[in-house]
C-alpha cells in the first residue's frame, strides 16, 4: 500500500496514534509488511495477511485474521493497524472482527490513501470512540479506541448501534 519512500511519515503518525491511545503491548499490523517491519523495530508486532513473498521475510507472520483469532485470546491486543479499510466492501464485518481482538480501550488504526471522510464514517459506525485523524502526505491515519460495552442490537443498514431500552413496559411514562 505504501511506497518505501513514504513509510516513515505514516509510521510516525501511527506511533503518535498509539501513544495517544496509551496502546502499550502487542499490536497486529494487517496487510502491509513495510509497516509491520518499521513498527516492529520498537514494538511487539504480529504481521497479518501479507503477500507470500513478504511473509517469508517475517517469521512470525500469520496468514489471515481468522488464523490470528485462533492463536490469541479475544480482546488481548493493545491495537490493530490495518490498511485499505475505506476500500473494503465488507468493512463492517472486518472492523467487528478487528475490534473483537483488541482489548477495551485499545486502538484501532486505519491507514488509507485519502478518503478521510469515509474513514471517519466507518470508524464511527464501528463504534470507535475518541477519533483522531493525522495526515502523512497523501496517507490518512485514522485512529479510535475500542469499547466493549456488552451486547446491544445493531442496525445493519447503516452499522450504527441502536439503543436498548431497559424500562419495563407500561411504566406510565408513555
Quick synopsis:
By secondary structure, this protein is of the alpha/beta class. It has helices spanning 7-20, 33-40, 52-57, 65-71, 91-101, 116-125, and strands at residues 27-30, 45-48, 77-83, 102-113, 129-136, 139-145, 154-155, 160-161. Strand 1, helix 2 (33-40) and strand 2 (45-48) form a beta-alpha-beta unit.
Q: Which labels suit this protein?
A:
174 residues, six-stranded mixed β-sheet, two-stranded antiparallel ribbon, globular
Q: What order do the helices and strands come in, and which of them pair?
A:
Blueprint: H1 7-20, E1 27-30, H2 33-40, E2 45-48, H3 52-57, H4 65-71, E3 77-83, H5 91-101, E4 102-113, H6 116-125, E5 129-136, E6 139-145, E7 154-155, E8 160-161
Parallel strand pairs: 1-2, 1-3, 3-4
Antiparallel strand pairs: 4-6, 5-6, 7-8
What is the overall number of helices?
A: 6
Here the CATH topology equals: Rossmann fold
Report the sheet with the most strands, covering strand number, pairing sense and barrel closure: 6 strands, mixed
Count the domains.
1
Strand content: 25-35%
Description:
It is a single chain. The termini are far apart. The protein contains six helices and eight strands. With 174 residues, it is of the alpha/beta class. The chain is 32% helix and 26% strand. The relative contact order is 0.16. It has helices at residues 7-20, 33-40, 52-57, 65-71, 91-101, 116-125, and strands at 27-30, 45-48, 77-83, 102-113, 129-136, 139-145, 154-155, 160-161. Strands 2-1-3-4-6-5 form a six-stranded mixed beta sheet, with helices on both faces. A two-stranded antiparallel ribbon has the order 7-8. It has one domain (4-161): Rossmann fold (3-Layer(aba) Sandwich), CATH 3.40.50.150. The model is unreliable at 151-165 (pLDDT under 50). α1 (7-20) crosses α2. β1 (27-30), α2 (33-40) and β2 form a beta-alpha-beta unit.
Amino acid at each position: 500500500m505504501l511506497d518505501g519512500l513514504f513509510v516513515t511519515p505514516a509510521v510516525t503518525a501511527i506511533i503518535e496514534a498509539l501513544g495517544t491511545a496509551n496502546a502499550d503491548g502487542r499490536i497486529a499490523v494487517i496487510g502491509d509488511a513495510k509497516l509491520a517491519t518499521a513498527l516492529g523495530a520498537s514494538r511487539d508486532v504480529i504481521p497479518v495477511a501479507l503477500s507470500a513473498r513478504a511473509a517469508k521475510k517475517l517469521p512470525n507472520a500469520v496468514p489471515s485474521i481468522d488464523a490470528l483469532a485462533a492463536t490469541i485470546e479475544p480482546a488481548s491486543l493493545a491495537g490493530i493497524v490495518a490498511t485499505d479499510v475505506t476500500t473494503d466492501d465488507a468493512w463492517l464485518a472486518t472492523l467487528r472482527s478487528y475490534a473483537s481482538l483488541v482489548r477495551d480501550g485499545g486502538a484501532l488504526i486505519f491507514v488509507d490513501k485519502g478518503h478521510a471522510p469515509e474513514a471517519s464514517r466507518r470508524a464511527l459506525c464501528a463504534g470507535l470512540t475518541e477519533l483522531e485523524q493525522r495526515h502523512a502526505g497523501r496517507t490518512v491515519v485514522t485512529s479510535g479506541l475500542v469499547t466493549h460495552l456488552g451486547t446491544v442490537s445493531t442496525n445493519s443498514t447503516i452499522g450504527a448501534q441502536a439503543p436498548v431500552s431497559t424500562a419495563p413496559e407500561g411504566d406510565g411514562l408513555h
